[in-house]
Design goal:
320 residues, cell membrane, 13 helices, membrane, transmembrane, mainly alpha, transmembrane helix
Amino acid sequence: MNAAAKQRHFDLKSFLANNGALVGLVVLCIALWIATPHFLTGPNLMNIGIQVSTIAVMAFGLTFVIVAAGIDLSVGSVAALSAMVSAYWTTTAGLPDGVSILVGLAVGAVSGLVTGMMSAYGKLPTFIASLAMLTIVRGLTLVVSDGRPISTSESVSFLGSNLGPVPMPIIVMVVTGLIAAFVLNRTIIGKNAFAVGGNTEAARLSGIPVKRVLVTVFAISGLFAGLAGMLLAGRLDSAQPTLATGYELDAIAAVVIGGASLAGGVGRISGTLVGALVLAVIRNGLNLLSVSSFWQQVVIGVVIALAVGFDVIRRKNVRH
């Protein structure tokens, strides 16, 4: 094999390693297009966009935590509490309608902040800290709501409506994705997160405030989870105590499928979006093919296992 051929082989291997999820998404879309004529229709594609928006926004924030070698299991519950508090203080307690979104975002950010502090200063593993927060926040959601749904404010309901022909959830997803990508790739917050995730001890010795970085990435995760919760509540026109139950698993899966490493130091917002789309397209395609929801869970589990296995193999190749 001559040098040019070796270079092409290397480039292809590198491209597949870095964009495996995107290639998989394209192949998946082609297969579903062949399998069912309803897949590549405008209404169905719009439906996929709406369905993926909540998970994608939640996963954008979670990417920061995973890049910093952490895990956040509380994002689904944080989404529910943010939506519930926002709805309560506007429709029940009389807070001005326009403030409702800010209230929801603040609740999400503070929840993430507390999780980060438990991990950074309380020395709890991020898995345990976020698991504790998952239970605490879901309980607070039930306390605030008394176990009943609460109608959302007009501002939150607008997040679930359309702006002209385009659904607001898709617009919010695109805007937040661009913001998250900028922060992760172009600011000191993102650079420090990569440094901490890549080698925590080296980051500490180089003067990076590791504890502050952990608190910051969890606060960002909570902020995005709060927005995701209000997107979902806006679509339903109500905040419900069981809102976003189990969404944390899909959000983690989206980040991992998108190429982020659970060991930290690797991750892209664009990859996270592709990962979320892979999950949404699989579910949508299986629904169109009338596949049982039970089997859908099996398929999603296999996809997640393959993504994590690919990450393990990739890290072994990097070390060697």
